[in-house]
Structures are given as structure tokens and as C-alpha cells.
Amino acid sequence: MLTVRLWNLIAGDVKFQVKYGFYFIYAILVAVYIFILSLIPSEWKERVADVMIFTDPAAIGMFIIGAVVLFDKSQRVLNSLAVSPVKVNEYLISKLVSIGVLSSFVALVIAFVSPKENYFTLFIGTFLASVLFTLIGMIVATKIRSMNQFIMVIVPFEIIIFLPPILHIAGYHNFFLLLHPGVAVMSLIQGNLSNVFFNLIILISWILLLSLLACKRVETMFCSIGGGNL
Fold it and tell me: CA 100 to CA 133: how far, in whole Å?
């Protein structure tokens, strides 16, 4: 159950995203995507939209969280949070929910233009993908000191995440490839109902594993504010 404190954290993160132009930037990007989709033949439109949703709205958290954590560090927001009643999991959940809402909304707008047959699996897949990618970004962001450093470190993770789904779409099918979270995300975005529960189990398992690691990283970050352990 969401507490009042957690609701306030989520609301604060949404206000931050609006204030610093994340919603404005994605409004422009959505307009560009819609324009591109309008130029694509109808038989290719849905597939192109799926790739757009996977590589941008679904993965938005991986990039946003780097800027958010750097802002929290530079503006000494973490200093205040470290001595406040805010818990590590609340800080993390707030980021996951606020970014997940943005990415899911963008994905639905793009999907309506395609159009898609199954919006429910698209929404679930995009939200869970956003959570997954945000967790990866958070794990990396807790250790970085600049945006340039973050981008350099995150690129290998992008390759690891994006390459298997591309191979899967291209026709390379392997059981071990199905265990990859990116392949599970793409399957849900495409509306594949034949193995939806298997994909959900794969995604949730990866999210739980990364959540444990992210919580430890955030806790360490909180405890090391100011260069020494609190």
C-alpha cells in the first residue's frame, strides 16, 4: 500500500520531470514518431512502432535516471533524504513509478497510431520494461559523477539489452534467448499472447534480482554522503 510519504515522493518526481522538460521533450519526440509512422506503409507500421516503443519509451528510464541521480547529488537532495524518514525502497519506488508512468503513456500514444490489437500487454510490457531499465540505470548512476561518465558506462548495457531482441525479431530463435528480459519485453509489446505468463515470470524475476542490487547500491550511496560513512 502506498503511504502518504511515498505519494509525496512520486508527486515530487513527476513535478521534477515536468519542470526540467522531460515531458516537453517527449511530446516533441512523440510528434516526430507519429509523423514517421504516417510515412510508413501499413504492413510495416505496427512492427516499426514496436521497435520504437522498445528502444525509446520502454528504455526511457535508463537514461533519465542518470540525470535525476546526478541532480540529486549536485543539489544535495540526497543529503536531506539521508537524514529524513524516507526509506531506500521508497526513494527507489518513487523513481520507478514516476518514470514508468511517463514511458507507458508515450508508448500508448505511439501504439494508438499503429494501431495495435492488444493494448493491455503493451502497457504491462512497457511499464515493466521501464522498471527494469530504470533499475539498471540506477545501479550504474549510484557510482557515477558526471553525465559523460554515465553515458560511457551505460552503452555496454544498451548493447546487452537491445541486441538479443533484434536477433529474435530477425528470426534467430533459441531457448536461452527467451530468458533474456529484452526478448520478453518485445514479446509483450508485440502482443504475443501464447507465452505471456512465461514472459511475465522472466521479467518479474529479473526485476526482483535487480531491485535487490539497486537497493544495496542506493543504501550505500545514502551512507556515503559527504565522502564518509554516516
Answer: 10
* Cβ atoms of 9 and 96 closer than 8 Å: no
Decide: 188 and 124 in contact? Cβ < 8 Å: yes
Tell me the per-residue pLDDT of 80-105, one tens digit each, with 9 for 90 and over: 777 778 788 889 999 999 999 888 88
d(CA 182, CA 188) in angstroms, rounded, equals 10
187/173 Cα distance (integer angstroms)? 13
Burial of 153 (0-12, 13-18, 19+ CB in 10 A): middle
Sign of the CA dihedral 84, 85, 86, 89?
Answer: positive
Question: Helix 88-113 to helix 4-19 angle, to the nearest 10 degrees?
Answer: 50
CB-CB contact of 26 with 102 (8 Å): yes
> What are the boundaries of each domain within the chain?
4-227
Q: How far is it, in rounded angstroms, from Cα 187 to Cα 178?
A: 10
Phi/psi for 57 (5° steps) reads: -55, -45
Instruction: Choose between 58 and 88: higher pLDDT.
Output: 88
Number of residues in the chain: 230
Taking alpha carbons only, the member of 140, 162, 116 closest to residue 218 is 140
Peptide bond between residue 115 and the one before it cis (omega within 30 degrees of 0): yes
